[in-house]
Specification:
Layout (H helix, E strand, L loop, with lengths): L7 H30 L7 H14 L6 H30 L4 H4 L5 H11 L2 H18 L1
Helix pairs in contact: 1-2, 1-3, 2-3, 2-6, 3-6
């Protein structure tokens, strides 16, 4: 079993910080592209997974199951944030709000309902593929 050295702990912290920042940034890009295209763009989950794995590697996190789990969690977070942002942008536009103005006004129940209605089999398949890619590239 690998035991982290004292120098490895700050690198893991850097990797997590990069991962959080990168996931939020990727979700913002996804939202902007989806609102422009007027589609969910479920395929964007796969590049999000690759981005998460890359950020963990660049951050210096050691190989192993922890890095894979972090990549999977970041990919899932990016998918959730993107879906939230896309729903908020679509609903906010109908009310004359900008996407970032409607983000906090969208309630959890309403966002969940919209996500269930909007995400069909294709989007769910892209999400499942992205989680598998995150596990594979993150290991």
């Amino acid at each position: 079993m690998d035991h982290p050295t004292p120098a490895a702990k700050p690198r893991a912290g850097l990797a997590i910080a990069l991962l959080l920042l990168g996931s939020v940034g990727f979700a913002a890009l996804w939202v902007l592209l989806a609102l422009y295209a007027d589609r969910l763009l479920g395929w964007m989950a796969v590049p999000a997974a690759a981005d998460a794995a890359l950020l963990l590697r660049l951050g210096g996190m050691r190989r192993g199951w922890r890095r894979a789990v972090c990549a999977i969690a970041a990919t899932a977070m990016t998918v959730v944030l993107a879906n939230w942002g896309i729903a908020a942008g679509q609903i906010g536009a109908a009310m004359g709000l900008l996407p970032w103005e409607s983000l906090l006004k969208l309630g959890l129940d309403y966002a969940w309902t919209l996500a269930q209605l909007a995400n069909g089999g294709v989007e769910l398949a892209w999400t499942a593929a992205a989680l598998a890619v995150a596990a594979w590239l993150g290991r």
